[in-house]
Amino acid sequence: MAEELALDLEELRQLQSIAKRPRVLSLISSEIRNLEKTSNENANTSAPATVSQIPTPKSTLAKVPVSPALNYVTLASFSWDQDNDKVKIYVSLEGVDQEKVQTEFKPMSFDVKFHDIQGKNYRCAIPKLNEEIVPEKCKVVVKPTRAIITLFKASKGNWSDLHFKEDKLKPNLDKERDPMAGIMDLMKNMYEEGDDEMKRTIAKAWTDARSGKTADPLKGNR
């Protein structure tokens, strides 16, 4: 019994050292105190009794309930507008309690969670924004039929999109790659995004390059 209690205490203390959330820490600390109390009582009752035999108390420790992981419904559909200083995202959602809104704003992302709305949890997040924002100024305002997420821009100007998009027209400059690979990637992107005339021009240049033909830049001037 004493060995089991000692092992339990050791494992709980390890969990306490890595736990971060206040509620979890509180539950673990309470359980440790209960186990320590039981361990001390067992140690006291194990000594020879001089008057009468004291029965060993039974442990009445309650099991700590494990909170199940929360499930979220992703809010992928929303509208947005902007001015020179900020972006506003409008999420249609009724019955939101301002006290049950959890926000996480970072320079290039945001994650807003709406809890306990008719038995469901909702989430609106963009993992990588088009431009940087000022996290400490961003906020969420709850209205009767919607929530408004306001993102304050780190730099004034117009955003072409909310989501970050890599510039496909920039060649990959990885030094370890073949220098021609970046140019070939650039030509592929130009071909995919170009009009019919651009595609014909690139296709011809590609064919000439593969067949070993080279264009004479002075042709036509002679």
Q: How would you describe what is shown here?
A:
- The longest helix has 24 residues, at 22-45.
- Helix 1 (2-18) runs antiparallel to helix 2 and helix 3 runs antiparallel to helix 4 (196-211).
- The radius of gyration is 32 Å and the shape is elongated.
- Mean pLDDT is 78; it is low at 215-222.
- The chain is an alpha+beta fold.
- Strand 5 (109-117) and strand 6 (120-126) form a beta hairpin.
- The chain is built from 4 helices and 8 strands; from the N terminus they run H-H-E-E-E-E-E-E-E-E-H-H.
- The protein has a 4-stranded mixed β-sheet with strand order 1-6-5-4, with no helix packed on it. The chain has a 4-stranded antiparallel β-sheet with strand order 2-3-8-7, with no helix packed on it.
- It has helices at 2-18, 22-45, 179-193, 196-211; strands at residues 73-74, 79-82, 86-92, 101-106, 109-117, 120-126, 139-142, 146-152.
Number of strands: 8
Helix content: 25-40%
Given as residue ranges, the uncertain stretches (5+ residues, pLDDT < 50) are: 215-222
Distance between the termini: 102 Å
Shape type: elongated
- The topology string of helices and strands comes to HHEEEEEEEEHH
Physical arrangement of strands within the biggest beta sheet: 1-6-5-4
Largest β-sheet summary: 4 strands, mixed
How many alpha or pi helices? 4
Structural class: alpha+beta
Rg calc: 32 Å
Instruction: Give the integer mean of the pLDDT values.
Output: 78
Strand-residue fraction?
15-25%
